[in-house]
Design goal:
Layout: H1 6-11, H2 19-30, H3 36-55, H4 60-74, E1 78-79, H5 92-98, E2 100-101, H6 103-116, E3 122-124, E4 131-136, E5 139-144, E6 150-151, H7 154-161, H8 172-178, H9 184-201, H10 205-218, H11 223-235, H12 239-252, H13 259-270
Parallel strand pairs: 1-2
Antiparallel strand pairs: 3-4, 4-5, 5-6
Helix pairs in contact: 2-9, 3-4, 3-6, 9-10, 10-11, 11-12, 12-13
Length: 277
């Protein structure tokens, strides 16, 4: 029996939220017959395969190097360079089967294996590509799961962040803030945003609406998710839902950069043909 459902998930705090199960719950929307047990067992097997080596190794960076070597070189997990925006890169069952993913899904596999081995690896919602971080003696080891788990130097981190900070190079304080651990809810929301973006780009508005709806289960009244669901409803000609979501978005974010555009879409929904669903 699949114990976790969306209503239960919505009530859990981040400390109680089972990240792997929740990621598989996202996948279950697209693959309704998905049984999570084999995938949970596979992640556990990945950890067991390298446990002896990790336990025989001293410092955390060397333990983590053993995990990365096992995942990215022996098992062949890799970033999907050729089809980065393929929705399957966000569905964990597909990532575990194909051993292909995007930064956040590969990070999730990396984190889950590491934690089963007592390695406190956290995700980082870094601008652009998702990263992982490991507390080590004297600071943090930051790694890029999309590129084989390679360590990322401080200067590279500054350069990666720079385009997202108006061209400013972040100082140490700002960089440490950016490198804060991402809570499980934020990780799941980022996966859902990825899915929404993929489906909106390809015009699959039913799936785009579903992704935004799931995000609102995790983060009720999140303005961008309300906007995204409302616009998807508009494409689906579900005007009552579009009106409600877009009006709520403007109420919560009246000064948003796209507020004028959304007001126009709301007028469009208000004068359109009502459709019953």
């Amino acid at each position: 029996m699949y114990l976790l459902d969306w209503n239960t998930l919505a009530t859990l705090d981040d400390e109680s939220l089972p990240l792997l199960q929740a990621a598989l719950l996202i996948a279950r929307d697209e693959y309704p017959d998905l049984d999570p047990a084999p995938y949970e067992a596979l992640v556990q097997a990945h950890a067991e395969d390298v446990r002896a080596e990790v336990e025989a190794t001293g410092p955390r960076p060397l333990k983590m190097a053993a995990v990365n070597r096992h995942l990215f070189f022996e098992l062949g997990y890799a970033g999907n360079q050729e089809a980065f925006y393929d929705p399957r890169n966000n569905y964990l069952n597909q990532v575990l089967e194909r051993r292909l993913g995007n930064p956040i899904s590969l990070a999730l596999v990396q984190m889950e294996v590491a934690r089963r081995l007592g390695i406190p690896l956290d995700g980082v919602s870094f601008p652009g590509h998702f990263l992982v971080r490991l507390p080590v003696e004297g600071g943090l080891l930051v790694m890029d799961p999309f590129n084989g788990g390679r360590p990322v130097a401080v200067e590279e981190l500054r350069e990666r962040a720079r385009p997202h900070l108006g061209g400013e190079i972040p100082d140490d304080h700002t960089l440490l803030q950016i490198l804060s651990p991402a809570p499980p809810r934020a990780i799941l929301a980022r996966m859902l945003r990825n899915l929404h973006a993929s489906y909106a780009e390809s015009g699959q508005w039913d799936r785009a609406a579903r992704s935004a709806d799931r995000m609102l289960k995790l983060l009720p009244n999140q303005p961008q998710a309300l906007r995204d669901r409302g616009l998807a409803y508009l494409h689906l000609d579900y005007l009552p839902g579009a009106r409600e979501d877009l009006a709520r978005y403007l109420q919560l974010a009246p000064l948003a950069p796209d507020a004028d555009e959304i007001r126009e879409r709301l007028i469009e929904a208000s004068h359109g043909r009502a459709v019953l669903h």
